[in-house]
């Protein structure tokens, strides 16, 4: 037919373009990619891709490329509801053709093609299954039923359909719906169980069994989400198919453990895929289906112990091998490891799940001594890891951090020990200390063997200290529990049992031999780091020798790895030990640690940050040494900042070090003298760059959007705020460079920047300048001419809401403090800009900040002048900037706009002082008419929204929830809000505020609030303004509040 001929010609064109895209010629390849892109717009393209993918005679590379193109095409063109959808949409008849053809590819002989087809089927299934593709489950189960009935072995061509179906089910299991629960529990799980039980000794059947277990795990995981709280369904599944999988997991793990063989280093990569799949299934059952395991729970530990025992033998053989002789571990189709590390890590995960299970944790208690003894062995440091650390300090830091994401047997064993200590508490501390003693004895025996000579001496010499180092790791993991037990025993005496070992004994006896110069470097490093963990519970006499050893390890003649490890240990001592124990050693330790910053090995950002953190910790411990070191330390930190300013985290670590140095009062003058020129230079460069970019944009007739701020800008602002302005002695004038150079440069940056973080820190700096009186009284000064335009630009239209929020809060603080004269020249313009921002649909936090600023403006300008300014500004609008949120806005006059926003914000203001301030100022506005403002009667009768009327039978909708619905524009139904006269609403809010129980010391403020309200009415003959009567009435109302509650309102 003509349609068939068209499809055939399109398929040929697609195939030719894919083949050309595989060529090495760059021009030909790019032309082919453009042809594929143009062909994708033609109807039938997706069908042609599937035909190329499923053609067994085509080149394998072309088929794989077709699979890649198909996967991307399905994600972007199959369903309009997809986030990644782009037109055109695949037609319905093309979708039907694809769904009919794809399942054939699941039986392809090429495993990669089967996987690619499985991915395509899973991609379609997430949209079409089961509604548009109801036959998919049957199509996937048929090859499994044939394999279970003996229709084909696991290997060869007969096993390919089952392998493809399993791979597809593994990807599709997460899309199971409630309608497919019967098929999943009655057909799929029993079939998978039968396939998993049929695993033989050959590799092909083991792989098929592993696939079956992986699919079953995903199905059971999906079932736990679908069943939810249906107790009857849960009970049926626990007693039926899920329980059968628990029995299978324990039985087959026992069989696999009995067949475990120790693989020599560099041998054929192990394939533990079936064991890993069973362990992951067992972990799921322990965490989500613990009640399904009682029939087999007594047999859980023996297979796990046997697997660990065999794996430990393999690990011991590989411990002293370098990376080149170890070879690579096997991986599955997803890239997940199937070797020794993956096997042991999953065994540890199962044991950790048992420890955290309320039903099964008691099974571990009798086995804790052997388990802990074995886990310590897995924390030994392999030679390959030692070599990697020597070459890269960054790798050492990644592996040794407490919250590391590194994947290794050493890290997995530490995480298991930590989980056991957290889950079992004191019950694990004593057996852990006993296991440590056993390992230490083994290390001593190996050390004696190495010293005695003989055939085994070289291996013993290389391994004894690794065993000892691993024992110290385990001991450090128990440090919090041991320290708590020691404190409890010291406080309660015999009523609390003593810890198995004390921190004093550890620091004075156990660790000292290991920190001697003759000890292996990494053992010295471990002993120092572990000693730091126990330092809070030791005396100064016990701590001092360890600090001396740390200073010796920091010397330039020591290996870089030891020096950096000693630096981490010193940071631990400084952060944990009492200050009196550390202060005498700071003078010796600080120069040695600072010398690391000049070392060639400290090139990594994370390593440099760790050194800076150590410096900051030492500076905080001894102010006298900090002051003496300022002359050398400040230039060193400034040079580091200058050379590496593009690393933001490092720059902030330098700022933290300066903050710690500024804690020493006698160090502050020299520190500030050196910092101010640098800060002024950085801020000047930033303002110059902003001005140049703005001028270039204006010359080109374009709108200027500020680029990212210069790298040193934010750290410079942090130094200005937290070091110079915060720490400078009160009552002492600021240095001349602060007000003469830094302040003008700061104002230029604030006037040009739109970065929220720069504005946040810059506003903090300006606030501190105001507190120091550096902004002047508005009559002059080095920055007087810059203040009004800068303030205006800090509310300009193109800023974001977060930036404007910082500016509005700053203006409030300036008006409340002694800097009101400095802001007075710009106050009228700022009021107009604040009104313009209120016209937008902004978030409540910004609206409250703007209203608080307007309240302060009313108090500064007077109510009459403010109303006059608002009345003259009715046409205030934000300029259009091509952004929807800046266009239009509320078009009502300024006075009603502000008053309605004011009344609407008062009930949502959480802080009582701010709420009362808004109420007081509102009363002043209602009683202070001034031409051309509206007369008071017009304002009093202005219609505003009252409290929402909510049906008591409906779910309660708070004002905060309603506000979030309005801000998000969700279009959800909101309760009715009646319209009230402004005066009625104002006194309604006033009565509610006066009815609230006053906080401590708030009685006077409430009395003044009531006095202000009655005075407002008294001016118009509505009531008397006798303050004494109002105060008495207020106190009586407060006294009755406790009895009447909200009814008193």
Automatic annotation (TrEMBL):
Residues 32-108 form the Importin N-terminal domain. It is found in: Nucleus. One of its GO terms (biological process) is protein import into nucleus. It comes from the Eukaryota. GO terms for cellular component: cytosol; nuclear envelope. InterPro entries: ARM-like (IPR011989), ARM-type_fold (IPR016024), Importin-beta_N (IPR001494). GO terms for molecular function: small GTPase binding. Keywords: Nucleus, Signal, Transport. Residues 1018-1049 are annotated as: Disordered. Residues 1-21 form the signal peptide. Residues 1024-1049 have a biased composition (Acidic residues). This is Importin N-terminal domain-containing protein.
């Amino acid at each position: 037919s003509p349609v068939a001929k068209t499809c055939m010609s399109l398929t040929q064109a697609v195939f030719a373009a894919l083949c050309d895209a595989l060529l090495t010629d760059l021009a030909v390849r790019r032309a082919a990619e453009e042809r594929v892109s143009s062909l994708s717009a033609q109807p039938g393209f997706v069908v042609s891709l599937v035909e190329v993918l499923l053609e067994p005679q085509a080149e394998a590379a072309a088929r794989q490329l077709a699979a890649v193109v198909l996967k991307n095409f399905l994600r972007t063109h199959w369903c309009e509801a997809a986030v990644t959808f782009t037109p055109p949409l695949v037609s319905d008849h093309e979708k039907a053709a694809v769904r009919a053809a794809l399942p054939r590819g699941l039986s392809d002989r090429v495993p990669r093609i089967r996987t690619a087809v499985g991915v395509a089927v899973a991609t379609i299934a997430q949209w079409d299954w089961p509604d548009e593709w109801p036959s998919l489950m049957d199509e996937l189960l048929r090859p499994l039923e044939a394999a279970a009935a003996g229709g084909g072995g696991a290997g060869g061509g007969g096993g390919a359909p089952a392998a493809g179906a399993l791979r597809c089910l593994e990807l599709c299991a997460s899309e199971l719906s409630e309608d497919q629960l019967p098929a999943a529990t009655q057909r799929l799980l029993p079939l998978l169980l039968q396939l998993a039980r049929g695993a033989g000794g050959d590799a092909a059947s083991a792989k098929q069994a592993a696939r079956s277990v992986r699919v079953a795990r995903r199905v059971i995981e999906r079932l736990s989400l679908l069943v939810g709280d249906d107790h009857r369904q849960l009970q049926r599944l626990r007693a039926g198919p899920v329980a059968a999988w628990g029995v299978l997991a324990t039985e087959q793990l026992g069989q696999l453990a009995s067949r475990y063989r120790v693989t020599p280093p560099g041998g054929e990569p192990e394939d533990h895929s079936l064991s890993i799949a069973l362990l992951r299934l067992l972990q799921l059952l322990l965490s989500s289906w613990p009640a399904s395991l009682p029939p087999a729970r007594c047999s859980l530990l023996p297979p796990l112990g046997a697997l660990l025992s065999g794996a430990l033998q393999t690990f011991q053989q590989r411990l002293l091998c370098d990376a080149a002789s170890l070879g690579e571990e096997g991986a599955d189709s997803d890239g997940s490891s199937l070797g020794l590390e993956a096997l042991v890590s999953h065994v540890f995960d199962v044991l950790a799940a048992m420890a955290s299970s309320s039903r099964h944790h008691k099974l571990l208690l009798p086995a804790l001594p052997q388990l802990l003894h074995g886990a310590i062995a897995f924390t030994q440091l392999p030679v390959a890891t030692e070599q990697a650390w020597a070459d890269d300090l960054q790798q050492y830091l990644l592996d040794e951090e407490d919250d590391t994401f590194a994947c290794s047997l050493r890290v997995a064993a530490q995480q298991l020990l930590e989980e056991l200590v957290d889950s079992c508490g004191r019950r694990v501390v004593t057996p852990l200390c006993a296991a440590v003693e056993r390992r230490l004895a083994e290390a001593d025996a190996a050390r004696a063997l190495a010293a005695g000579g003989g055939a085994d001496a070289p291996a013993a010499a290389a391994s004894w200290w690794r065993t000892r180092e691993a024992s110290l790791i385990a001991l450090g993991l128990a440090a919090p529990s041991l320290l708590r037990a020691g404190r409890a025993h010291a406080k309660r005496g015999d009523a609390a049992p003593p810890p198995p070992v004390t921190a004093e004994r550890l620091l004075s006896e156990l660790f000292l031999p290991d920190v001697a110069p003759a000890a292996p470097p990494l053992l010295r490093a471990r002993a120092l780091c572990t000693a730091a963990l126990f330092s809070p519970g030791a005396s100064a006499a016990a701590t001092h020798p360890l600090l001396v050893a740390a200073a010796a390890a920091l010397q330039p003649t020591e290996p870089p790895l030891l020096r950096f490890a000693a630096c981490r240990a010193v940071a631990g001592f400084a952060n944990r030990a009492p200050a009196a124990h550390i202060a005498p050693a700071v003078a010796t330790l600080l120069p040695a640690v600072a010398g690391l910053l000049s070392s060639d090995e400290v090139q990594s950002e994370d390593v440099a940050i760790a050194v800076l953190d150590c410096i900051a910790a030492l500076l905080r411990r001894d102010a006298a040494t900090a002051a003496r070191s300022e002359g050398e330390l400040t230039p060193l930190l400034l040079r580091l900042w200058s050379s590496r300013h593009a690393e933001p985290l490092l720059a902030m670590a330098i700022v933290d070090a300066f903050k710690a140095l500024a804690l020493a009062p006698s160090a502050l003058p020299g520190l500030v003298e050196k910092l101010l020129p640098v800060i002024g230079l950085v801020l000047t460069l930033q303002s110059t760059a902003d001005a140049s970019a703005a001028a270039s944009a204006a010359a080109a007739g374009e709108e200027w959007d500020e680029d990212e701020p210069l790298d040193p800008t934010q750290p410079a602002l942090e130094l200005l705020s937290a070091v110079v302005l915060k720490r400078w002695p009160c009552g002492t004038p600021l240095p001349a460079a602060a007000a003469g150079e830094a302040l003008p440069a700061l104002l230029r940056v604030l006037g040009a920047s739109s970065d929220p973080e720069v504005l946040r820190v810059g506003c903090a700096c300006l606030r501190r300048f105001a507190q120091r009186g550096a902004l002047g009284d508005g009559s002059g000064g080095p920055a007087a001419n810059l203040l009004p335009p800068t303030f205006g630009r800090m509310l300009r239209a193109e800023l974001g809401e977060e930036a404007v929020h910082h500016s509005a809060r700053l203006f409030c603080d300036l008006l409340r403090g002694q800097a009101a004269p400095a802001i007075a020249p710009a106050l009228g313009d700022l009021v107009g800009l604040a009104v313009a921002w209120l016209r937008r649909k902004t978030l409540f936090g910004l609206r409250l900040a703007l209203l608080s600023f307007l309240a302060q403006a009313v108090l500064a300008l007077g109510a009459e002048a403010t109303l006059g300014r608002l009345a003259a500004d009715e046409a205030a609008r934000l300029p259009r900037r091509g952004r929807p949120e800046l266009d239009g806005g509320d078009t009502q006059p300024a006075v009603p706009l502000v008053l309605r926003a004011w009344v609407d914000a008062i009930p949502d203001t959480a802080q009582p002082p701010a709420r009362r301030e808004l109420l007081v100022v509102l009363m002043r506005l209602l009683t202070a008419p001034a031409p051309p403002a509206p007369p008071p009667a017009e304002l009093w009768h202005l219609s505003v929204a009252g409290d929402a009327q909510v049906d008591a039978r409906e779910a309660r909708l708070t004002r905060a929830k309603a506000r979030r619905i309005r801000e998000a524009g969700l279009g959800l139904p909101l309760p009715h809000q009646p319209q009230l006269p402004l005066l009625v609403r104002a006194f309604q809010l006033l009565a509610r505020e006066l009815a609230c129980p006053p906080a401590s010391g708030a009685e006077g403020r409430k009395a003044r609030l009531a006095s202000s309200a009655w005075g407002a009415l008294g001016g118009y003959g509505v009531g008397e303004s006798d303050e004494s009567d109002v105060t008495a009435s207020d106190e009586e109302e407060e006294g009755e509040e406790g009895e009447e509650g909200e009814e008193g309102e």
